[in-house]
Amino acid sequence: MPTLTQAPSQGDVVKFQFEPNYTNEAITLLLGTNYKSGSVLGKITASGKYKLATAAGADGAQIASAVLLNPVDATAADATGVILARGPAIVSKVALVFDATVNTVPLTATKYAELTAVGIVPRTSA
After folding, report:
1. Can you give the CATH number for the domain in which 92 is found?
2. Nearest Cα to Cα of residue 29 among 76, 96, 89
3. Which of 6, 27, 83, 112 could pair with 66 as two cysteines, CB 3.0-4.6 Å apart?
4. Residue 31 placed within a domain
C-alpha cells in the first residue's frame, strides 16, 4: 500500500485563536521563497513586506511577528498570504518553520518569545 504524505496545513499550525477576523491579516510576502504553512515571519520596516524572520539583521524582519497560515509560492514574485498577526492564539511548536539562520535552541527560544510578545503563544502540547 502506498504511503501518502501531506504538507502541514493551517490546522496543524494553529491550535487556538480568538477570532480570525481580528487575529488574521492579508499581507505581501517578499519574493524569493516558497513559504510553507507555519513559516515564522518578520516585517521589513521599509517596505511593509514580510519574509522569514532571521536570527539577525537590521531591516526589521529579524523580529518574529507573525505566522503564515497557508503555503505561498513567492519564488518568482511578491505574493499575497494570510498570517496570524496577533493573539490571543496558540500555535504548535513542531509545526513552525524557521529561517535557516534560526538554527540553535537559544535562537528558536528568542523567536518563541517574540511571537509571545504579540500574543501568539507557541506550545509543545498544542
Report:
1. 2.40.300.10
2. 76
3. 83
4. yes
Assess contact for 69 and 14: CB atoms under 8 A.
yes
Indicate left, alpha or beta for 119 from its phi (over 0: left) and psi (-120 to 50: alpha): left
Residue 88 placed within a domain: yes
Q: What is the SS3 assignment for 22?
A: helix
Residue numbers of the domain that contains 110: 10-123
Estimate to the nearest angstrom the gap between the alpha carbon of 72 and the chain centroid. Answer: 12
Cis peptide before 2 (omega within 30 of 0): no
Q: Would residue 4 count as lying in a domain?
A: no
Q: What is the pTM of this model?
A: 0.92
Q: Is residue 105 part of a domain?
A: yes
* Average pLDDT along the chain, 126 residues, taken 10 residues at a time: 72 90 97 97 98 96 97 97 96 96 98 98 84
**H or E element: which one contains 55?**
none
